[in-house]
From TrEMBL:
Domain of life: Eukaryota
Descriptive protein name: Uncharacterized protein
Length: 591
């Protein structure tokens, strides 16, 4: 085995090292690498200096080594310690048996080996846009779309089925109102708890578990309603105290809580990992597709169950809904597993602060005896994290839109139009057009993000909605709704306003995805849904108090003010961002 020893005088920015004595050179071709036993013994200051006279093909980069004299291992000095005493830098040993396929010619003293340079390619604007529009895991996204389609279709079918089936039991709306109230209450209280559970649990198993619990709650609810249709009808007051109704309320609350948690996990966490947080166009397109799937499933679910209900008995329709829940569950679980598989296990990636924020086993043992206190602490933590999120104005604007329960295709609008004597076909067409406008908004949102950027696209949607609803309220207060043409114009303005509403719904989701850390996405997302449910409950309470049709104008003004307030709050974020918000949306602020 041959070893060469290179010794040369070096000048490191004023530090001169004398040249060691050299022996005759060896063969002209050797294979070499830096010996692990000997490293350049430089202090911390001089180690970062550039070797001016060092030129080599070794793994050292940005280095110049001037090979002037070489010496074989057989002729190497035996007393290395003596040599080290005379030199402030040790002798470098180069082995000859490291590289297996190539050899390197040692050059003469005046010859230098070419430096190894790393070229950093600079993408053009078109290439950057193409990269921003390309998802990080496109095949995994397609599997996620299929899973969302299977899950949302059954969920939307059930969301239309249970109130319709309960309404056929009694003409009063009280049973449905009670179920809705407790569902909102479950989301308000349990949202942060489930969100924290999702943040501290593996993504895929936790998501599958929630799907199983949701399907079980749906099946239990369907069983209770079928049982109610088989027994003799009773008064409304007695229905609220029946055991089957109590079970139905509890199962409905659990089903809604699980549905919200799985939706938040997909929209605030999964889609970011699959599309890529640093690819805004691809993320906007993914959000648009998910919203499009949800709206299409909403239309399809209501239509399918409505057609079945017009031809068959309610019990038969409920059995069909239960069967759809059973077959869709394994499909969703299989597609969820396939999503992670096709995305090369990206959903298995641990969250950044799971280890640093996790509780110790000792703390967990201490808190285990007080579940209530721990739950309250989790709720407080959820609200605290929600209020401290960097994109709070965008989230509050989203919450304010939930106060708009009148100037929208809601049950209150349906009741108002019915009392006005509007043709039921017109009412049905109004609801259908609002849904299709939402589908159109999912296509528009991706274009807005690409042309205007995330923040400006969100502001455009809110301003558009507020402007059209202002015209709609002005038409109402003009007192001309007694005629058919003003009514159609009033409804048309609301339909068009849904374009801005759904555009912000898609863009706002991407803003929150960008600003909320992945490790807290579920906790903050479920807390946001809780706040939105609270806002909706407050507005519904006001509507219960002012339940006469003559108070519709007052409710319409409150709805309009909430939308205007949302637009103002978001435009304030756009015009006066904080330093943290500037860093999050730095690309936009520079354009």
């Amino acid at each position: 085995m041959a070893m060469v020893t290179v010794s040369q005088s070096f000048n490191f920015h004023g530090f001169f090292v004398r040249k060691a004595s050299l022996l005759p050179s060896s063969a002209s071709r050797v294979r070499y690498s830096i010996n692990d036993r000997r490293w350049l013994n430089l202090d911390s200051a001089s180690s970062s200096c550039r070797f001016r006279n060092l030129n080599s093909r070794c793994s050292i980069t940005n280095t110049d080594l001037h090979l002037s004299d070489v010496l074989t291992e057989d002729e190497a000095p035996q007393d290395l310690s003596a040599a080290e005493c005379d030199c402030s830098t040790p002798i470098v040993h180069l082995k000859t048996d490291i590289l297996e396929s190539e050899s390197l010619s040692l050059l003469a003293e005046t010859t230098y080996v070419d430096s190894v340079l790393t070229a950093l390619p600079v993408l053009s604007e078109e290439e950057q846009n193409a990269l921003a529009a390309t998802p990080a895991h496109p095949v995994g996204l397609y599997a996620l779309y299929a899973s969302s389609l299977a899950g949302n279709l059954v969920e939307q079918l059930w969301n239309f089925a249970w109130p319709s089936a309960i309404a056929l039991l009694h003409p009063s709306l009280l049973p449905v109102a009670v179920m809705c109230f407790f569902s909102k209450l479950a989301i308000i209280v349990g949202g942060p708890l489930v969100g924290k559970l999702m943040d501290y649990s593996p993504r895929v198993p936790a998501y599958m578990g929630l799907n199983v619990v949701q399907a079980a709650a749906q099946l239990l609810s369907a069983t209770m309603i079928i049982h109610a249709h088989t027994v003799s009808p009773t008064s409304v007051s007695s229905v609220l105290l029946r055991p089957w109704f109590i079970v139905l309320v509890l199962a409905g609350a659990v089903e809604r809580l699980c549905g919200v948690a799985t939706g938040v996990a997909v929209e605030r966490d999964w889609v970011i990992l699959l599309a890529g947080m640093n690819r805004p166009i691809a993320l906007a397109q993914a959000n648009a597709v998910l919203n499009r799937i949800d709206l299409i499933c909403e239309i399809a679910g209501a239509s399918v169950f409505g057609i079945l209900l017009s031809k068959y008995e309610p019990v038969t329709c409920l059995k069909f809904a239960a069967a759809s829940m059973i077959w869709s569950l394994p499909v969703m679980i299989g597609l969820t597993w396939l999503t992670n598989k096709l995305a090369t296990g990206v959903l298995d990636r641990p969250r950044s602060c799971q280890t640093c924020c996790g509780e110790s086993s000792e703390e967990a043992a201490v808190d285990a005896g007080s579940i209530v206190d721990r739950g309250l602490e989790t709720i407080k933590l959820g609200w605290k994290e929600y209020m401290q999120q960097p994109v709070l104005p965008a989230s509050l604007a989203y919450v304010l839109l939930f106060f708009n329960v009148v100037l929208a295709p809601s049950s209150l609008m349906t009741a108002f139009l019915t009392q006005r004597g509007v043709n039921p076909s017109v009412i049905g067409g109004f609801s259908g057009l609002c849904a299709f406008m939402g589908v159109a908004a999912t296509f528009l949102s991706a274009t807005l993000v690409k042309q205007l950027g995330i923040l400006k696209a969100g502001a455009a949607g809110l301003v558009f909605q507020a402007s059209l609803l202002s015209l709609a309220v002005a038409v109402y207060w003009s007192g001309s709704l007694s005629q058919q043409s003003p009514v159609l114009f009033f409804l048309g303005l609301i339909v068009l306003s849904r374009l801005g509403h759904m555009s912000y719904d898609v863009v706002g989701a991407q803003i929150l995805q960008t600003g909320i850390p992945t490790s807290k996405a579920n906790l903050i997302g479920t807390t946001e849904v809780s706040v939105a449910s609270l806002a909706e409950s407050v507005m519904l309470g006001v509507a219960i108090i002012a339940n006469d049709a003559s108070h519709f104008g007052f409710l319409a003004m409150l709805s309009l003010l909430s939308v205007v307030g949302a637009a103002w709050m978001f435009c304030r974020l756009l015009l006066n961002p904080t330093d943290e918000q500037r860093s999050l949306f730095a690309v936009e602020s520079n354009t």
